[in-house]
Structure formats: structure tokens, C-alpha cells
TrEMBL record:
<comment type="similarity">
    <text>Belongs to the CobT family.</text>
</comment>
<dbReference type="GO" id="GO:0009236">
    <property type="term" value="P:cobalamin biosynthetic process"/>
</dbReference>
<dbReference type="InterPro" id="IPR036087">
    <property type="entry name" value="Nict_dMeBzImd_PRibTrfase_sf"/>
</dbReference>
<protein>
    <recommendedName>
        <fullName>Nicotinate-nucleotide--dimethylbenzimidazole phosphoribosyltransferase</fullName>
        <ecNumber>2.4.2.21</ecNumber>
    </recommendedName>
</protein>
<dbReference type="GO" id="GO:0008939">
    <property type="term" value="F:nicotinate-nucleotide-dimethylbenzimidazole phosphoribosyltransferase activity"/>
</dbReference>
<dbReference type="InterPro" id="IPR023195">
    <property type="entry name" value="Nict_dMeBzImd_PRibTrfase_N"/>
</dbReference>
<comment type="pathway">
    <text>Nucleoside biosynthesis; alpha-ribazole biosynthesis; alpha-ribazole from 5,6-dimethylbenzimidazole: step 1/2.</text>
</comment>
<keyword id="KW-0808">Transferase</keyword>
<keyword id="KW-0169">Cobalamin biosynthesis</keyword>
<keyword id="KW-0328">Glycosyltransferase</keyword>
<comment type="function">
    <text>Catalyzes the synthesis of alpha-ribazole-5'-phosphate from nicotinate mononucleotide (NAMN) and 5,6-dimethylbenzimidazole (DMB).</text>
</comment>
<dbReference type="Pfam" id="PF02277">
    <property type="entry name" value="DBI_PRT"/>
</dbReference>
<dbReference type="InterPro" id="IPR017846">
    <property type="entry name" value="Nict_dMeBzImd_PRibTrfase_bact"/>
</dbReference>
<dbReference type="InterPro" id="IPR003200">
    <property type="entry name" value="Nict_dMeBzImd_PRibTrfase"/>
</dbReference>
Length: 355
């Protein structure tokens, strides 16, 4: 697959830097805000950048076969039925990200990519891109059937197109899926080669695994075992990104990757969120390396796989609030910071005018 991804406008970035240096403040005194302002100029190709008036969150919802086990073998603190129930909460506007997005003036859309449950009574914008119900348990079988990763990736691209055609000037990928922190950690371990299942050494897998929704140490040990078995089962197939998504990922991971790549193709900046969107970004970069220039990290989540993946992507998160909700909630919190960065360039006075 080949993608025509525009380069960021380095000329605009340099002009932004020059203007930032001339504002009424000590040189560099606005720290990271100056980097963000310059990055937005490079992304929008203008100084100052355009106002971020049309920020859109898309929550990719789906279930994961790793939750298809008795409670005694659970990898999540919550049952899988929560995924389907939460889609209705997003639709009603009452989820965490709905509330935070209202504060930030951002729109939220949830899409059913692979929810295990009947949501057919909901509008087509939610249900129209469904790939399948749930996914395979990655420790025992592939997550996806042949061709599904490509179909889900294409669906994610279409969803990005829909949001951009509706005017998005910044996109945020959100996620909802009980069990998806196990999937995210498996993708990160496989992508970074931190899993070495052949030697039976789980130490490297352990580094990627966190508590997700709040499992205890025994739950974490079960996640590590599931991921170790999945990596051993996938073997070298995991080297190729679509095979990796098929064997170890999910339809939501593939759709999120497609969404991130298409945003870049269309030249629309992205604020990544928690462990699931950052894991998808890591795989997406293997599919379209230049796409990564269009992504910023909104926040650092508590999941270790997210920090490992951010480091590999060379991204420094804007915020670190200890959030572990997912949904796009952390990235949404970073939107006012980006708006502030833009306003500084657009509105501050100039040192040269001090007299
Ligand atoms: O964004 C994060 O880093 C994050 C960390 C922990 C949990 N989550 C959310 O919680 C769900 C996955 O957690 P779990 O324990 O079921 O794997 C899923 O719906 C995620 O959106 C999200
Ligand atoms: C209630 C609930 C809401 C969520 N939002 C994202 N992940 C979630 C997990 C649970 C359990």
C-alpha cells in the first residue's frame, strides 16, 4: 500500500519561530507552547495557524476475544457487556469524553467497528462501518479473518474522510473496548520487539503490561501470559503490519490505524490519546512512515505500553494527568493548550513595539 502524504511546511515553522522570538516575552519563555505553536503552523501551512474551531473525536468501539473467558481468567476488571452499553452512553452524550469534549468545544462520534451486541437501532453514522462482532482470542486464534484487517483499515480511512469533509481541523482517535489494553500491549510488544517468546522470557512482555481498568497483580500476570502465548503463536507473521493486526490486533486497532493514516494523507493534524490509539499509531507508522509527522501526543496515560510506544514514535505528551479512561479523554484535555499556543502567535504584542 502506498500513500501520498504531504510534508509539513518547514517554511511556516521557521517563520513561526522567528515571530515567536519577537513577541513581548523573554526569548523561549513560553516553553512547550512555542513548540506547539510552531508545529501547528507547519501543519496548517500558515502563520498564525488557523483557529481550532472544528475538533472532532471519533471513538472506535469494539470487543476483544481475550475477554471471552471465565472471570477466574479475566484480563479486565469489567465484563465485556460494558462495551456495548457504553456505545449507548456515548450516543446519549453522557460519557467522560462527551463531558470533557463539551468543555473543550469538540464534537464526539462513536462508531461500532466490532461491538459484540445488537446496536442496530442506533443511527447509521454509528453502525454503518461495522466489520464484525468481537474478535478472536489472540492467545488461541487470530483476532481477524483474512482480509478483515485491510477492510477495517479502509473503514477507518473512510471515517477520517467523513470527519474531514465535515470540516475537521484537528482529529482525535478515541477507543472503547473492554480488554483492549491487552491488545494494545501485544501490538506494542510485537512492534518494538520487546516480546521474546521463543526463549520463554516474559520479562520484556511484562514491561508493556499495565492494570488497564484496574486488574490486580494476578490479573496482570494473566495479561502477560495471554500476550506471551499470542506472540509465540504469531511468530514472524507479526513482522508485517497487516499480519500483526490480523494475528494480534483487532478490527478497532486496524480501523484506528487507517484513520490516523488518512488524516495525514489529507493533511489534518491528529492528537493521539491513550494506550490504544498510540499502539495503533505505532503499527500505522509501519504501514505509512510519513504519516507520523501529522501526529502529536495529547497525554501520557498510566499504561506502560503507551509510554514505550510514545518514546518509539519520538512523541512527548502535552499533558500528564494520570488519566486511564481512554475514549479520547486525555487528548481532548490538551485541546485548550493547543488553542493557547495558537492564540499566543495570533494575538501577543511585539517586543519591537515596546519603544
Ligand atoms: O487510554 C488508556 O491508556 C486506557 C488505560 C486503561 C483503560 N482504558 C480503557 O479501558 C478499557 C480497556 O481496559 P481493560 O482493562 O478492559 O483492558 C478500554 O475501554 C479503554 O478505553 C484506557
Ligand atoms: C464504565 C467504563 C467506561 C469506559 N470508558 C472507556 N473504558 C471504559 C471502561 C469502563 C468499565
Amino acid at each position: 500500500m502506498r500513500f501520498d502524504i504531504p510534508a509539513l511546511d518547514e517554511n511556516a515553522r521557521a517563520r513561526a519561530r522567528e515571530q515567536l522570538d519577537g513577541l513581548v516575552k523573554p526569548l523561549g519563555a513560553l516553553g512547550r507552547l512555542e513548540d506547539l505553536a510552531a508545529w501547528l503552523c507547519a501543519a496548517h501551512g500558515t502563520v498564525p495557524p488557523r483557529p481550532l474551531d472544528n475538533v472532532r473525536v471519533v471513538v472506535f468501539a469494539g470487543d476483544h476475544g481475550v475477554t471471552d473467558v471465565p472471570t477466574s481468567a479475566a484480563v479486565s476488571a469489567y465484563p465485556r457487556e460494558i462495551t456495548s452499553a457504553m456505545v449507548r452512553v456515548f450516543h446519549a452524550g453522557n460519557s467522560g469524553v462527551n463531558v470533557l469534549a463539551r468543555q473543550a468545544g469538540a464534537a464526539v462520534r462513536v462508531v461500532d467497528i466490532a461491538v459484540d451486541g445488537d446496536l442496530d437501532d442506533l443511527p447509521g453514522a454509528i453502525t454503518g462501518h461495522k466489520i464484525r462482532s468481537g474478535s478472536g482470542p489472540i492467545d488461541r486464534t487470530d483476532a481477524l479473518a483474512e482480509g478483515e484487517a485491510e477492510r477495517a483499515f479502509a473503514a477507518g480511512r473512510l471515517i477520517a474522510d467523513e470527519e474531514i469533509d465535515a470540516g475537521a481541523d484537528l482529529l482525535i482517535p478515541g477507543d472503547m473496548g473492554i480488554g483492549n489494553t491487552t491488545i494494545a500491549a501485544a501490538l506494542v510488544a510485537a512492534t518494538l520487539g520487546t516480546g521474546t517468546p521463543d526463549t520463554g522470557d516474559t520479562e520484556h512482555v511484562e514491561r508493556t503490561v499495565g492494570a488497564g481498568t484496574g486488574v490486580d497483580e494476578e490479573g496482570r500476570a494473566r495479561k502477560i501470559a495471554v500476550i506471551g502465548a499470542a506472540l509465540a503463536r504469531a511468530g514472524s507473521r507479526a513482522d508485517e503490519p497487516f499480519e500483526r493486526l490480523t494475528a494480534l490486533g483487532s478490527a478497532c486497532a486496524a480501523a484506528t490505524a487507517g484513520f490516523l493514516v488518512q488524516a495525514a494523507v489529507r493533511g489534518v493534524p491528529v492528537l493521539l490519546d491513550g494506550v490504544f490509539s498510540v499502539a495503533a499509531a505505532l503499527v500505522a507508522r509501519d504501514i505509512a512512515p510519513d504519516a507520523a509527522h501529522w501526529w502529536l501526543a495529547g497525554h501520557r496515560s498510566t499504561e506502560p505500553a503507551q509510554s514505550l510506544a510514545l518514546k518509539a514514535l519520538g512523541l512527548d505528551p502535552v499533558l500528564d494527568l494520570g488519566l486511564r479512561l481512554g475514549e479520547g479523554s486525555g487528548a481532548v484535555q490538551a485541546v485548550p493548550v493547543l488553542r493557547g499556543a495558537r492564540a499566543v502567535l495570533a494575538e501577543m504584542g511585539r517586543l519591537a513595539d515596546l519603544g
